[in-house]
Amino acid sequence: MKIGFFVFSFLFLIPAVLPLAAQNGLTASIEQDGDSVTGTISGEAGSASVTISGPTKGDIATRERGGVNPATGKSTASVSAPPSSFGDVSIGMDIESVKKALLADRRFGYRGERDVSLLAGENNKLIETDAARYSPYPYLDRCWFQFVDDKLYVMSINLNQEKLDHYSVFSSLCEKYGAPTTLNPEKAEWVSDSMIVDLERPLCIKYTDRKVFDRIQSESGVEETVAEQNREQFLQGI
Question: What is the phi-psi region of residue 112: left when phi exceeds 0, alpha when psi lies from -120 to 50, beta otherwise?
């Protein structure tokens, strides 16, 4: 499990190290041979190398195509689609239903209407809870529930970093939902036809209604196009 994750981290770090090495009169190289990756840095005082044995980047892709989760080494035959709910709170619920669910689940530390605010835009509301302060349960921190047209569109669940770590949460998500659709140093992302689930650093799980997200992005693009056209018309009229 840890080997695959470490290889990902190693491959991310090497491109950042190479420019620094060049600035200090050093040379660096990367070699891949079979199931190992070797990075070597040389200078006047000598050289040092690090070799990582385990699944390489190409091997990870092969394993994923063969039905093996590269983060856990387990079969992907039983993985589920990315979830649309956390506890009894589900994407798409109306705001009154979400309020009732939050009141019934003490983990969130929901205090009622004082945690509800109005966002910019018509009928867009936000519920913000402080579980670390108002909940007796230890694993959640601040949580946000964002509504569009009275429907829950995004919920962001921040986890307590003193009780949980990024690697453990990442491994658990991989075991349940397979390898992430995209992976970079900022976040891992699982995407289905209806949902986007992100594990963001430092430690936040974000659930997004993909159809609403795509619609908002499309409308935003149209607004930008209209604004740009108005700008061009203004310039031509000067």
Answer: left
